Amino acid sequence: MADTERMKTVYFCTNRRYGVDSPSCAMRGSEKVMEMVKQELSRRGKSFPVEKFLCLGQCTFGPAVRIAPGGEFFLGAKKEKFDELLEWIIAEMEK
Ligand code: FES
Fold first, then answer.
1. For the domain with range 3-78, which CATH number is right: 2.40.40.10, 3.30.1370.10, 3.40.30.10, 3.40.50.1100?
2. Residue 18's pLDDT band (cuts 50, 70, 90)
């Protein structure tokens, strides 16, 4: 495995803004989804790094998740899309 592959990380935006005119990922449940993902990855024996991030610049389309380096986004990462998100993370991290 090359060094850049080892450094790949899954970043969840967990920014929280209060106010109806200020969308933010934590207000849409990103922290809970991140914990669900971490638990399921662990259950499957996947030790990918998963970290919080302050804001990924996709606030209107969040919750936002990004794999970096590489720059791919998964937007609208709500509980309802958990299975799709999990498979995407595994596929992106194992590329
Ligand atoms: S608040 Fe999540 S991308 Fe900006």
1. 3.40.30.10
2. confident
